[in-house]
Design goal:
Length: about 450
């Protein structure tokens, strides 16, 4: 008998009912943030010695906290990279939470890890990686990029006797995600940023030229070339074949950051743009972005998982029982130890609907993006800045200042119409819409664009 044994007769159905109703909402309320002081006044003390009871805490959540947290799956949440998890994925997230799974080791989580690996295999096949490829789901693209780069540096250091402690160099485009720079900082590595072309794409020749002009002292320390397949700002896909070629010439680890854009691998209309990804030493794609999985799930796949394993396995007396076995232990493939089976909701949804449904849903968002671009073209007061490569549209409202963009964005959220924030493109303030939700319609978006008139 413990203090946790209070009966759940009322709470259990209340929670399940709330969850089912929320999952069933096609158009969830967008909601609004509130200040800390405001929230504290509204909730009162919630963590107390006696507790406020499950029903009390649930009421605080449903009535105060949830309405103060944006619904990322709202069809007009188009800022940053939204998320639109499938019903099956979200339902199964409840099961994962209920099942006390430990997915760090095969010994403890074999069944869960097997299913996660099935989902990873689908992604590896889409990219064209060989059968030995494998990896792990981590919390986000940020951890995935860091973990891949740590593996890359490990391999490089293994091959440089006498220079093991040298500071490494990562070559990436100026348009690479901020997490690549953050990883370099955490690893105390340098970044050589190479300029992209006018649509934000990095080319092999540009990297070749920069490396040819760089001092030998720098190029000798280069251990990885990071390509982006779908930049977060505009959705540009680097010239992956050209970059793979340079990586091979220079013996650099070729990492492809497709955290946002990787979903396009499943869409025949854009698949050829990813040619060259099959030569990656590692790649990342976030199912929590454009693959309809709930937070947080980023898939990291290595061509040769053994390198990552050597780089990442933690050794401790109490872990030897795990590390001495030849098992596939997901903990060994990234910078982490304990892990939730966060790939399972994605696996369950893939198993439920089939991969064709994924291809269709991704094509739906791509088709919407192209139609939105045509609507913007046809509008007098809007100017498309870039033909969309994937599902991001970047455009400007003629004559507006940065302050006007911000005021419009704030108003849109206060009026509960949608969530769109300004960005910059080539030094100019612009608007950016990112489509990952197959429930967003052209009518929805045209209504939103009408508020820019
Ligand atoms: C979103 C994104 C990341 C970071 O992913 P998180 O899941 O937010 O950590 C990295 N790279 C690219 C290209 C992204 O779009």
């Amino acid at each position: 008998m413990s203090g946790f044994d209070a009966p759940l007769d009322e709470l259990a159905p209340a929670i399940v009912t709330y969850a089912l109703e929320r999952i069933g909402l096609d158009r969830p309320p967008l909601d609004l943030p509130r200040t800390e002081a405001d929230l504290r006044a509204a909730t009162g003390a919630t963590v107390t010695a006696e507790g406020i009871g499950g029903m009390g805490a649930l009421r605080v959540f449903t009535e105060i906290l949830a309405p103060a947290s944006l619904s990322i799956d709202h069809p007009l949440f188009l800022a940053f990279v939204p998320s639109a998890p499938t019903d099956a994925a979200v339902l199964f997230d409840l099961v994962v939470g209920a099942s006390s799974l430990y997915a760090g080791s095969w010994l403890e989580g074999a069944g869960a890890v097997h299913a996660e690996n099935e989902a990873l295999r689908w992604l590896a096949d889409l990219a064209g990686l060989p059968l030995g490829a494998g990896g792990v789901f981590v919390s986000g693209g940020t951890n995935a990029n860091l973990s891949a780069l740590v593996a890359a540096r490990y391999r490089w250091r293994q091959h440089r006797p006498g220079h093991e402690r040298d500071r490494g160099v990562i070559v990436a485009s100026a348009g690479a995600h901020s997490s690549v720079r953050a990883a370099a900082q955490a690893m105390d590595a340098d970044v050589v940023a190479v300029a992209t072309d006018e649509v934000g794409r990095l080319h092999g020749d540009a990297v070749r030229a920069v490396l040819a002009a760089a001092p030998a002292e720098t190029t000798e320390r280069a251990f990885a070339l990071v390509a982006t397949a779908g930049t977060t700002n505009v959705g540009a896909i680097d010239d992956l074949s050209g970059l793979a070629e340079v990586a091979a010439e220079r013996d650099l680890w070729f990492h492809v950051d497709a955290a946002y854009g990787g979903a396009g691998l499943a869409a025949p209309s854009v698949r050829p743009r990813y040619d060259g990804i099959e030569r990656a030493d590692s790649f990342v794609v976030d199912p929590h972005k454009w693959l309809f999985a709930p937070f947080d799930a980023a898939a990291l796949v290595y061509r040769e998982p053994a390198v990552a394993r050597a780089a990442h396995t933690q050794h401790a007396e109490y872990l030897e029982v795990l590390t001495e076995r030849p098992d596939w232990n997901p903990s060994d493939y990234a910078f982490h130890l304990t892990r939730r089976a966060r790939g399972l909701p994605f696996w369950f949804s893939l198993a439920t609907y089939g991969t064709d449904a994924y291809c269709d849903a991704i094509e739906t968002t791509l088709a919407l993006t192209r139609r939105v671009a045509r609507s913007i073209d046809a509008s007098e007061h809007l100017e498309l800045l870039l033909e969309p490569e994937l599902s991001i549209v970047v455009f400007r409202r003629r004559g507006w200042t940065a302050a006007q963009y911000r005021a419009w964005s704030d108003r849109l959220l206060i009026d509960q119409i949608g969530f769109v924030v300004p960005t910059t493109w080539q030094g100019e303030v612009a608007l950016r819409l990112c489509f990952v939700n197959p429930r967003t319609t052209l009518d929805d978006v045209e209504g939103l664009l009408a508020t820019l008139a």
